[in-house]
Amino acid sequence: MTTTGASAVTFDHAGLYVVDLERSRIFFQTYFGAIANAGYHNPRTGLRTYFLTFGDQARLEIMTRPDIDVPMGERQLGWHHVAFTLGSRTAVDEKVARLAADGYEVADGPRVTGDGYYEAVVLDHEGNRIELVA
């Protein structure tokens, strides 16, 4: 079904609240090649953000506010993980090994999932689930 004159819908970005904004920015830059904008600060609310851009132009907005500091639990509705395609099983294995060596918890895998993905799940320094996919 098409609609005359309608523009294509594209995904722009996802947002993630974090406690330590600078550490999160450095994490995504170091391990996933993110390019950060100059950042934004709203002095009225205390909100601080960075937009992180990844190789294929996908964007993740990381945000922090002094009044938001309770993490979501694993068994709650809402976003569950952020996934990065690394291109090969070898690349997944190497990234997992590097993250583990640097002290990050490997929560699952690497493994082949029931739907055929080769993936691993690593937790960042705040417990956010980062999925690495071949």
Automatic annotation (TrEMBL):
Residues 10-134 form the VOC domain. SUPFAM superfamilies: Glyoxalase/Bleomycin resistance protein/Dihydroxybiphenyl dioxygenase. It comes from the Bacteria. It holds the Pfam family Glyoxalase. This is VOC domain-containing protein. It comes from Austwickia chelonae NBRC 105200.
